[in-house]
Amino acid sequence: MAFGEIMKNSRKGHPAGAPEHPLPRTLYGTGASPGIVIGPVLRVGGADGRYRRRRIDPAQVDKETARFLQAVDRAVAELEESRRQFAAQLADFVPVLDTQVLILKDRPLRQRTVEIIAREKINAEWALERAVEEVRKIFAAIADPYFRERFHDVEQVSERVWRLLAGNGADPLAGAGEPVILLARDFSPADTLRMKSSRILGFLTERGGATSHTTIVARTLGMPAVVGVENVTREVATGDLVVLEGSTGRVHLHPTEDQLELYREQQRQEQSYSEQVARFAHLPPVTIDGLRVRVHANIEMAEEIVAALEYGAGGIGLFRSEYDYVARRQLPDEETLFAAYRELLASVAPFPVTIRTLDIGGDKFASAVGWGGELNPALGSRAIRFSFRRPDIFRTQLRAIYRASVYGKLKIMFPMISSVCEVERIKETTAEVLHELKREGRPVAGEISTGIMIEVPSAVAMADVLAREVDFFSIGTNDLIQYTLAIDRVNEHVAHMYDPLHPAVLRMIRQVVEAGHAAGIEVELCGEMAGDVVCLPLLLGLGLDELSMHPLAIPYIKRMIRNSTGEETAALVREILAMGSSREIRHYLADYLPRRYPEELGSGRLNWRERLC
Known about the structure:
Helix content is 46%, strand content 13%. Helix 2 runs antiparallel to helix 3, helix 4 packs across helix 5 and helix 5 runs antiparallel to helix 7. The longest helix is centred in the first third of the chain and has 25 residues. It starts with a helix and ends in a 12-residue tail after the last helix. The N terminus is likely disordered.
């Protein structure tokens, strides 16, 4: 389908009477993967139900049923082929694909759709939509948050069947000859991997979030994407011209010529800046006056290792181990975890890998755990508290981690520590596990650093005491900010108050660094602040030894480090910490940063000013 044909069909799916030249407007979602792209939309997957409904004659029921079952069988075959084709790239997503195959094969969705076709004499698309809506109501009544979220898999497989019923195969670009921005309610990880094509500029979805599987794959591929745009499949149709800003989450629909020229210029600046910055990816992160700060990557699955090393990571500063638990119907056993950690350490060697033990609870749930909901999960049984509550799960993970230690350079980190008693309990458990492994004759590396995450105010207050018990600190600013300011960062009513530049947060970081260094241990930071160019000069001046961030941020942070001096950033911190409000700090930085870093922040590439003003 050439661009002209796409544009000819551009009004399909829009309400009758829509203006021939619609007004420009902006839609808002979540920036999933950075980059600015401009192009026509190509919508894939099922359209909204009202465009698919039709009645059928009783004599057509058997034929329509057969058409539906054939589409289901083809969808199963597609998923199984994806499983084979992307076995290496999708190793961590295999349980997701297996779950989706089971949903298609299981009786409820399949049989219910067939019954609706027969009883109501309607087409397969409409019947499937009705069946999905019934399943939605069942899932909505489930108390366990994880199981409620599994409805997402039902939606994804239904979209696949709808696409096949519409006559579209596995390739969403079949027949498209011009570069396009793909639009769907959602894409599966396998769908996203298939997007490695010069004809796909980026993608846009109605569902998904910053940490969804699809988003992670998009970042790994370096493909601009915006997810979670409410009602976008109703408001945008094939052929509509859009500007997609993957960093900010904005989608500009029907842009004017002036807007197009503005964003084309931003594209040129971004491309030029990215090419300049790419040269810094593998340079050492050392300031002008010789201050060295390690720059590592945060990842949560093996697929991200290649990108992390390509972007210049000196190691993995945070491996989030939760995915092996939340993506499965059953808890992973020791051998499964051991194989995953062995591959991780071997792939990154000789660089170090810091594995954070299970940080389940709060906003992350495992299907096989099955505990009831809590009134305030962020303050409940999560992270190390959950590990203590379920020692069987904790010990299994520790055994797998220690067994894998001989395959690389391992550091272990325990989340959400709030007291010395918890550290003592961890030491008792790890000693028992190590004794078991030794008795079984299983090798364990001789040098393994053990650290804790500083994420709650009590740990900050006790940092001088805690520092005597561990080998390193890692400040998890995402949670530290949340708990310090009493802000739920995923609550839309207060999320705007989540503020890394709050004086209390900066003072807490200083206190932890000073306590750690006084005890002779290193202090790292692995929250989102680490990859934020606005915060970077402050983090340098605060004296952190390591910054761990999303891989894409590494070249930009390295460039700023190499254009900074330790003495100047320390002086900046002294000025900032004397200020009494984040407003005062922001106004100061809005003036200071572009003057001090004109090459890094003089471009519109990073959209940094919007976060200060």
